[in-house]
Amino acid sequence: MDVQKTYKKYIDIFEKFKDELKDSESEKFFKNRENAFEIFKKHGIPEHNHENYKYAGINGILDKDYDFSIESRAAKVNLNEFFKCEVEDLDTHVVLLSNGEYYQDNEPIEGLNKGVVICGLKQAKTEYPEIVEKYYNKYSSEIEDGFVALNTMFAQDGVFIYVPDNIELNKTIQLVNLTHGFGNKNIFKRNLFVLGKNSKLSLVICDHTLNSSNNFVVDLTESYVGENSQLDYHSLQNEPNKSGVVNSHFINLEKYSRCNSFVISLHGGVLRNNVFAKLAGENSEANLYGLNLTDRDQRVDNFTLIDHLVPNCLSNELYKGILDEQAKGAFSGRIIVRPDAQKTEAYQTNRSLCLTPQAKMRTKPQLEIYADDVKCSHGATVGQLDENALMYLRQRGIDEREAKLMLMFAFANDVLLKVNILPLRERIAGLIDSRLRGEFSYCAHCLLNCESRN
Fold it and tell me: HSE (CB half, 13 Å, CA atoms) of 117?
């Protein structure tokens, strides 16, 4: 199915189901869908001729016929049967999404701080409308993007987390995204995270697919970080080779707030990660980190946009990639410093290793500065392993394979050291080491006795 046929299919699907969607929610929420529908009709699906999606490989994941339904597909799941967190000493509240729908088997999460809300977004629209209406689609609607519009048109559920003023959540929240069942699914899920003043939230998001179907997932997360609050966001992507994922994260930062965002891509078919960060309050800070390990014909495309609106803010970006065999990667990072954003500090770095002549990496760092009292820099390199360093290790009795592994791990470790949760850092380090050694299987965390999905 080509892109134009896919575009027409989504138009027809929305027209077919819009009355059912309208009946399922308030007029205000449905208005967001209608507005997104108009944006989608205007911009369509971003193709390879779209500047921001030039190297994303989207066409390759749209040539399949995906099954779409607005009916519930959250089959009963025993989380312990399918997924076990192997992060020792990491005490978490576990939240499950089953095929894009919030699933807690009707049991509330116990032990939460007073006033903290964790539930499905669909449920939150009914039970906490004043909070959801205030923030839902507030930032994401400013970006006219075909996939953002698609998510707003079709997403019905996801996770809603609200942390009130003066609360630091006592445990990390682990959000497990499970895609399962047979058939080629088209899944849209939407998350909304709201932090009040002087609050703190730590998230670990784990993506897992339990079969070898050709699924296409379009995710969108909005995070609103209140004054003097902190969000630590860790996304661990572990998808099969046949998967297609477009993931967008919108982060709005008020004064004296901070967000540490990590996107770790360990395995996947075609992965596109968008991170939009708006520094809307003075003395706010955005730290965006990314690491991707790709081989075979896998593809990872990272796009970031950091928008400095006000003075005295800081942003840091560090994205790294290791590409082997015929893998392809891309990084496009854009920093905008608005005229009022004096005393801005903004730093961006992208580094990639291509281990074979067939591996391809494209990088596009961008700075747009409209203020005159700033400190900004960007840099990008694409290269191979350092032959001198390799020779140094060989001369000390280390065999060639082990020496290369040591250099690759040291290259990736710059990102790992930014992870503040020590047990999580150690676990990710172990996964990266296994992945580099060729020992990491996509099935590593799945207990199903099914066909190999490597």
Answer: 22
